Amino acid sequence: MASHRRPKQPSRTRVTVLTATAAAAVALTAQTAQADPKPSKSEVKEKVDKLYEEAEHATEKYNGAKEKQEKLDEQIDALQDKVARGQEELNTLRDSIGSVASAQYRSGGIDPSVQLFLSGDPDTYLEKASALDQLGAKQTDAIRDIQAKQRTLAQQRQEAQGKLKDLAETREELGKKKKEVQGKLAAAQKLLNTLTAAERAELAADESRANRASSRADLGNAVPASQRAAAAFSAAQSKIGSPYVYGASGPSSFDCSGLTSWAYAQAGVSIPRTSQAQASAGTRISSQSQLQQGDLVFFYGDLHHVGFYAGNGQVLHAPKPGASVRYESINNMPYMFGVRV
Questions:
Q1: Does 256 qualify as catalytic in the annotation?
Q2: Quick one: which H or E segment has residue 101?
Q3: Which tens digits make up the pLDDT trace of 241-258?
């Protein structure tokens, strides 16, 4: 017979606990929403600029690893050429000693005293003996040459192996730095995507105004530091408006040290690729008042940013992702010192 008992009703205590739990969850959600409000446009810009600065720092490390890789490639090619040429010379030496040995064998392998006894012409024998002595001396010299060449080849091969190991480590470092830069840029873009379309448009408009203002920069009566500095600065001026691209060194896009190294190359002067290395490319100038047009100027404690002093407190540089080569106030960044190349 079926049971018709009424379903058991939840106790008052259980209802109270459930209600309290639900209320607490609602309150916690509300508190979380209040504790984590949407960042403002200015806050996003500040965070994005910080990420761009960190990306530029990583970019200079990437540039250093890339420059090292290129040098190692050249050194390894040169060493491998030396090894190949040395092996050819060694083969030639071995062939020559084989010829000497053959000639010595043909000249007679009989004991000299027996040869003298059998010879009907002592003068002829003495001539042959002298030739044998000369062949023996040549053979000894050839053996010494072979031994020396073998030692040289072994050293060159060992050096090449060391360079190849350095190259593998450098390529690994290069990949890590590239990944770090890309991660910083991706994080910056993710932050920018939290803004509304109108807010992103406002930021873009700010950059456009900064680029346009660059064309109206007052450089005063700037005096070039030298003829080479003037030529390098002129080359950099010709690239105003070119976009910033990490790891780029021209001619259509640049990062900060890419612009300065490219511009000085146009003036016939070779300077290092990275900002940190460029800091040792000339005479250091601590006081801003002593800077002249075309001097390199360095910013931040780790020297990860470099540009040209333009005159009247202005610098010409490749600022950051999303910006173009332009003039800006030297006071926009923490100035460290200048360098006259």
A1: yes
A2: helix 41-107
A3: 999 999 999 999 999 999
